[in-house]
Amino acid sequence: MTVVRRKRGGRLNLVQLFIIITLFCYGCYLCTFALSLKQKNADRSSILASASKGSHHCINEDFVPEQKVGIWTMLSDNPDYILGAAKMGKGVQEHTKTPHDLIVMEIESKPLSKESWVKLSSIGFKKCVVKSIPPPDPKKTRRDLLEKFGVLHVWAMTVYHTILFIDADTFVQNSLDSLIHMDLEGKTIGVTKDIRERKWVETFNSGVLLLHPREKEFDRLYSLLYSGLEFDFIMSDQGFLNEVYKDDWKEIGFVNNANLALYRFQREFWDKHKLEDINIIHYTMQKPW
Predict the structure, then answer these.
(1) Radius of gyration of the chain (CA)
(2) Which of 94, 105, 145, 184 could form a disulfide with 74 if both were Cys (CB 3.0 to 4.6 A apart)?
(3) Pairing of strands 280-282, 170-172
(4) Burial class (CB in 10 A: 0-12, 13-18, 19+), 13
(5) 225-237: per-residue pLDDT in tens?
(6) Which residues contact 24 (CB under 8 A, 6 or more apart)?
(7) pTM (two decimals)
(8) Under DSSP, is residue 268 helix (H, G, I), strand (E, B) or coil?
(9) Helix, strand, or coil here: 171?
(10) Burial code of 177-215, b = ≥16 C-beta within 10 A, e = fewer?
């Protein structure tokens, strides 16, 4: 056993020896704590990196999520909607202060032109390329809505805490901050009541859709889509979602999805609202382009 000595050669007394041992043990504790903290930070970074890579269905490598909120739209069959998406995106960027990613979902089999992406990218849109989700009964589905089931992919985009999906035939003229942070009060989605055949109906319009994505919910939706479930096939994803969430949606308010069909067929209701108070105008009938 090695005996610790003073510089002058004398033995250390018990008090001095105790202090030295205590300092040595404290030093060991600090080293252990520092290594543990370093490992925890490394684990956290690994988890975050894994989430950012694996928690979405975008198959293009240049898709890099940055924020916790994603504002999405989808473009596929009709190139004219690119103009609508561009207008919508400009409105979002101008009025909405909540940090967000602005994303266009593109179907892999129906890529947009380079010219289109030059325009969309200049506004701030990110590209997310996804696989097509075919309709369960194409013959019963409206021809221009055959690819709309691709919208279901947003439920799998768990890299985002909140997703706001907005149809490209909309115009954003006010901030969407209050909508983004709206409490869904236990419901799975936030949407607004629809009008069909000139009358209010008990179903909803999914042209503006607020949700918190969950991979398990996407899996459930995908299974239900091909389970033989009966729904309003002609309306594609909207008919399907109305069947699935018929008792599980929160009303987000007319001002967040002002359907122009109401202007034409329910004018008295429309006129009760000031135009400047409307956040999103939805051109469900004649398009502005």
Answers:
(1) 28
(2) 105
(3) antiparallel
(4) exposed
(5) 999 999 999 999 9
(6) none
(7) 0.81
(8) helix
(9) strand
(10) eebbebebeebbbbbbbbbeeeeeeebbbbbbbbbebee
